[in-house]
Amino acid sequence: MAPPMTRRLAAALLVWLVVVPGTVAAVPAGGGPGTSDGTPTAADDVLSALEEAARPLGTTEPSGPFEDLRPFGDAVGDAVMVGVGEAAHGSHDFVAFRHRVFRYLVERRGFRSFVLEANWSAGARLDAYLLTGRGDPVRIMSEEFQNAFLLLHSQDYLDMIRWMRAYNVAHPDDPVRFAGNDNAYAGPEVYDQVVEHVRRAHPGLLPAVTELYRGLRPTLPVGEWIRAAMTAPLDERRARAAGTGRVLALLGAREPAGKDEDHVRAVQHARAVDQVARMYAFDLTDPRAVPQAMAYRDTVMAENTLWWHRHTGHRLVLGGHNSHVYTSSSTPHLPLTQGAVLRRRLGDGYLAVGLSFDRGAVHATGQGLQNPTDDDVRRFEVEPAAAGSVEHTLDRVSHRNWYLDLRTAPSAARAWLDVSRPKREIGTDFPPPGDQVRPLRSADLMVHLHEIRPSRRLDRETAGQRPRTPGATTDPLPALKGPPVRCAPWSPPAPSTTCAPWGRWWAPPGRSAPDGSLTAAATSPPAGTGCSGARSRGRTSAPSCSKPPGASGSPSPTATTA
């Protein structure tokens, strides 16, 4: 039998919890809070420095004026991805604040996509609704947000989806988009899209693809399918992964010479199917497999988010738990975070926003519960933060709700923020395991709320599998307008090149940006463009492009990683 800690970690991964038990990271010389040389910093000096840097929030609710977010927008600068975390999944206020930030960045900064810690197929169905108005978001969320994703099934997320649809009705030529980046489930539409593309474009592959996918297309509701997938014999799970990987390889080998959006989408769908199968192919009874599986999951989420960015050209808000958004991990059991991959790929093009709170209430399940259902969700009261924690000091700032840019905070504040301390990171279950977070190394901005309220749960619309409409297309991802950019996925530790849209060209063709700063539209990098990526955490460092010898014209800004 595995040790208690290993069993706890395996359970956490099996239910897709976002928080694993943390260990204390190294503190600066001197063994405690202090300056870089170990000299203690007086508590009053730290608090005074935080007060100086803090920017008050007028509200966390999505509606209302945006004046209090102007410094937030300045901090975003030219970043193309803004990861806005949450310190608890089952909170109204964290989701509402992220919704508010998304609205602001859409209306004032030209952001056009929202990517959530949800399954690829769930995002695709919601995106189709946003673009066409067909379907019912209440039903989609009810069917998709089950098992460990059941806390996404809330009025708070539904409000954001409805706002996005209203925006698209008012701006049909410049819509906002939605994507999921997680890999716990791939819906039947995703399989259908791959098979139908093969039937149409590569009929010679159809017998092989049909056989490799035999029995894999989900027929159960999401929650039941996940439960069955986790309990299947390991050999069977690994055989499925071998099959899905073979399909992906077959499609990749047929990569067309020219532009073919149908093929690009089909390959991404096949990749999503394979990502799910490979996630369940880990042997979680082996303690060595747990950190590998956690790192794989976060790498997948980063890859899917980068794919979406590349193929839409959109600046986007990334939503997820702090532990995924952070650019560094607080525990060896999560050796690689999504935020770390994005920082490595995009440099300062990725901005991480961590959230914290002092007290309140959340919705969650009991600790370590596997395969939760709606009946397992309860309201938990969260006591004020304990002395010595990150939140305890942040809550002493005079503003009730506020944020600060950690990169430009006074030196006394930065020294205090550069030490690992306890911080509550509540995932699907409660109580949290007690992570240790070093804010300055984990986030670029920090948002602190004095008190949070639990999420507003929705009644489950239906527990059954959604029927397929006869004659309707099964492609949940409508054609993308921009041409694709071929980029290799990141695979540690080997270097790779990512050609991702970069910079402030988010205005539609022929239209000015809201602040009048730009009139150009997103374009793909010219063939042969050489790219170099910045790795600095400085605010002015950004990836850049250089033209190959003899090339003419101006290269489109892109980002790479070493």
Automatic annotation (TrEMBL):
Could you name the domain of life of the organism this protein comes from? Answer: Bacteria
* Basic and acidic residues: bias regions: 451-463
* Keyword Transferase assigned: no
Q: Which residues form the signal peptide?
A: 1-25
Q: Where is this region: Disordered?
A: 451-562
Q: Which CDD domains does the record associate with it?
A: Ere-like
Composition bias type Low complexity, residue spans: 516-529, 541-562
Report the InterPro entries cross-referenced here: Emycin_Estase, Hydrolase/PRTase-associated
User: What is the name of the protein in this document?
Assistant: Erythromycin esterase family protein
Q: Which organism is it from?
A: Streptomyces prasinosporus
